[in-house]
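During the no-cost extension, the postdoctoral fellow (Dr. R.K.) reprocessed legacy sequence entries with the updated structure-token encoder. One reprocessed record is reproduced below for audit purposes.
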Amino acid sequence: MAAAGAAGTDLYDRPVSTDTSTTRPPLGLRTSDLVTAAATGLLTLPDPARRTPATRFVLRTAVAGTTGAGVWLGTDGEPALDLPGRFAFTAGAVGFVYGAAELGEAVDRALQRRLVRMGVRRPRLTMALAGVGASLAISLLERRAEAGEEEDAPEGPVLRPLPEPVRELVSAILSHTEDYDSLRLRAQLTGAREEVWGEPEDAPRLVELSVPENAPLAVPHSFTFPVSARFTSARAVPCAARVLVSGGRLAAVVVDLDEDAWEVLAEDWDAAGGDPDPLADVTLPRAQDVILVTEARG
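Re-encoded structure tokens follow.
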């Protein structure tokens, strides 16, 4: 329970920064978006056709470096990419720029000739401004898409009907004794729903509960209900399902190892030595598959 309390503190009691000294770019753009756009314009100004092979290589390197920096900064904070993934993604982008340099310069020359035929006096400047505008437009679309995804994401838990097997299990545990305000807890269970954060699990080991606000509160307010539903997992591990009460309300039903298993594991289980998680394949049992045991409370 101490671990669960620590986890709750980490999730809900994180300090919120009030530092407003950093000025954000307009329209929701990132600083990396503005830097990439400015670099795009500056690197478009030189005419590759008028450069020597050495200076052309320098220009290509500058374009590749700018692209790599933009990719690196743009992937900062992406949950799907760890540090090696960001390195690989950035290196791939740099390699693509080098590989497509000849084709890009050919398109660049064709576009410049077309602008000259159209009577544009400064084709390179026109192309540079167009590059800046295109870069900013793409970044703006990306930021708006990200903002839309954030707005669509639920700000809190989703409440859904409590699965009947879970309701039957909790009811069996609460009905095993008339003590510990079990009548009020059973009344709460009548209107209880499942509280889901993120994607629901198909076979959970823990189900969080949400009860109506007007439900009668149990006394004592926060405790583990002293009746456990004992069962044995498919790997013959002794387990127990228990009901947690918080603030006088049903909070969750969770599977853990029972006391006998803890005593055995304390002597024999070696996680560092490769022993598997004893609860890896364990899910909430059905009411008909458990033995109800009233536990002594110290």
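The beta strands are 158-161, 193-196, 206-210, 223-224, 227-232, 238-246, 249-257, 291-294. Confidence is low (pLDDT under 50) at residues 1-22. The remaining legacy entries will be reprocessed before the final report is submitted.
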